[in-house]
Amino acid sequence: MAIRQGLEFAVEQGVRDVVVETDSQLVVRALLKPKHDLTHFGRLIRSILEVATCFDRVTYSWIRRTGNLVAHKLAMLALSSDSEFFYSHVPDVIAATVEADFMPN
Questions:
Q1: How far is it, in rounded angstroms, from Cα 11 to Cα 77?
Q2: What letter would DSSP give residue 58?
Q3: CA distance 68 to 98
Q4: Report field, pTM of the whole predicted structure over 0.85
Q5: Is 19 helix (H, G, I), strand (E, B) or coil?
């Protein structure tokens, strides 16, 4: 669901090329090779692929959770927050994580 919502937000912002990174190999495989699947998961994959048609190019890739720390922290923040999340403000914990991503090892 987060992937679909992220893609919908990108459409609203006028983005044309998108890279979707996730730590779920199952999701990446399903997006790259969709099958006829009548489960809730299959419907969700189809809805993601439908939104993806709005872009010139979409790349799906799997990365380890340690490489996806910003997304993981955003998800945890969203689950623990009672208030709406606003796109105009980057929470301090997220900003620090993004900065750390750019630091050489």
A1: 24
A2: E
A3: 10
A4: no
A5: strand
